[in-house]
Every structure is written in C-alpha cells, then in structure tokens.
Specification:
7 helices; Tumour Suppressor Smad4; 6-stranded antiparallel barrel; alpha+beta; 2 domains; globular; Rossmann fold
Length: 275
C-alpha cells in the first residue's frame, strides 16, 4: 500500500518553490516530477522553508542533468522504485547572489550548476524557444546561435582569497554536478558531496578555437585546453565590465556582480549511494 501523499500541479514559473515551501515541513519527502528547472524550484522551496524533507525526483524534462550525476534512473517506473526503496544521501548545495533585472541584490539556491557569460544567454534562449526541437539538439542550436551574438567582457574571478584571475571571459560554469546542457560534461571532476564548487572558466578565443572547444565539450575534454582555467573553491566572486548575464540551474536570473558559495551537506536527496 502506498503511503499518504498529495499531488499538486504547477501552472507558472515559481509555483514549485511556493508549493514545496508550503508542504516541506509536513512530509518526509517532496518529489519533483519534471526537468532540472522543476527540481531546482522544489529544492529552493525545501531550503527556503528550512525544512529537512528529502528531495525525490521523477525525471520528465529536457536536460535532466542533475539526475545523471546522482545516478537516478531516467525512466518513470525505475525512478518510482528508487523512491520506494528509501535510499538517501546528503549533498552539497550552492548559493548564488547576483544583481536582478532591476539591479538589486538577489539570491537563489542551486543544485547542479550556475553559469556566467555565454551559457546564461543559451539558457535564456532555451527558455524563450518554442521547443519544437526537443532535447540535446535544442541545446546545441541555442549554443550555435549564441556564439554569433555573444560579446565577451573583461572579468575578475576571485576564489577563496586567492589573487583575482583576470580574463576576457567566454563562459564560466560554477558547478556542483558534472553535467549541463543535456549531458555535456562541463565539470568532469565535480562531486556533489566534496564541500566544494568546480569553477570552469573559458577565455575568449578565435572562432577556430571555439569550434574546437565545442567538439570537445560533450566528453569534457575541453577542460584540458589552454583557454580553460579549472579550479575548486568554496566561494567565488565574479565582477565584469560590462556586466555579464547569470543563470542558475537553467534559469536566467540576473547579471554580475555575482558570488557563488557552497553549503556542504545541506540537502537530503533520494538517490543511490555515491560510488
């Protein structure tokens, strides 16, 4: 016999945050049925409520990148079986602070990754698209169109008190999970329980070098290119002139200046134990 549960439907962006926050203190588990955006909203609801409810996921979205890192099955039946098994693990979460559309300070939790630069424009393009082309092809189309219109900015990247890294930035991932963009290994060394964020900063390069980087993107081999700086940090700050867009878990949320910090072991998820 199934335990008691409530099922609620979201209608607009932000609904999942509100609904999860309202119920997180009443249930042991709050389950997100959807893609990375829905999962992120439900997690934000649990965290904003200060609840200890576990986050469960039944993947039904375009990217489903977090579940790849966590080892959650993508099939609905297998994911439901995992929920029934009661498997639990603690994972880190990230906290992003940035300037919102009005230039005011704002913040948001993230589970998988945030981006500064071209990736935030890709996320915005994906969210505005009609989605006639589903899945990874839609991500690649958004990437290619963004390459034609993105203009890099001079950025200062400061992490954990180290001297700032200054570069003409193409894109930076601030990652908790390994994947983004529907299976791209944007941070192949990331772990969701190591107490650190993986900062992968890509300097602007010639058109040929950018194409070469794209060819190595899905495998994660691009991080070995000389244009890429890869570091781990508990806190990282970005300042850019002109300002660059910021996305969090696939949602374009604002712009630099931005700070990203890790909160170790903050969330319980229904997922297999780490390998």
């Amino acid at each position: 016999m199934a335990p008691p549960f409530d099922a609620v439907l979201t209608r607009v962006a932000g609904d999942a945050v509100r609904l999860a926050a309202e119920r997180a203190n009443s249930y042991e588990t709050v389950v997100a049925v959807g893609g990375d955006g829905t999962v992120s909203e439900v997690a934000n609801g649990i965290l904003s409520a200060g609840a200890e409810a576990a986050l469960g996921v039944i993947p039904r979205g375009t990217g489903s990148d977090l579940v790849r890192t966590l080892g959650i099955p993508t099939g609905a039946k297998a994911a439901a079986s995992l929920l029934a098994s009661g498997a639990r693990r603690r994972i880190d979460v990230g906290l992003a602070t940035f300037a919102d559309s009005q230039g005011n300070p704002a913040s948001r939790w993230f589970l998988n990754a945030a981006e500064v630069g071209a990736g935030a424009m890709v996320a915005d393009a994906m969210n505005r698209a009609s989605r006639r082309v589903p899945g990874p092809p839609a991500f690649w189309w958004a990437i290619l169109t963004t390459l034609l219109r993105y203009r890099p900015s001079l950025v200062s990247v400061a992490s954990d008190g180290s001297p700032p890294l200054k570069m003409l930035l193409s894109n930076a991932w601030i990652a908790n999970g390994r994947y983004s963009g529907g299976g791209i290994q944007s941070a192949p060394r990331a772990a969701v329980d190591d107490g650190l964020l993986d900062v992968v900063a890509v300097a602007h390069a010639s058109a040929w070098r950018r194409v070469l980087g794209l060819l190595k993107l899905r495998s994660g081999a691009f991080v070995e290119m000389p244009e890429v700086q890869y570091r781990k940090a508990a806190r990282v700050q970005f300042a850019a002139q002109p300002h660059l867009p910021v996305e969090v878990d696939g949602d374009a949320v604002g712009a630099t200046p931005a700070m990203f910090e890790v909160v170790p072991g903050r969330l319980t998820v229904v997922a297999p134990a780490a390998c």
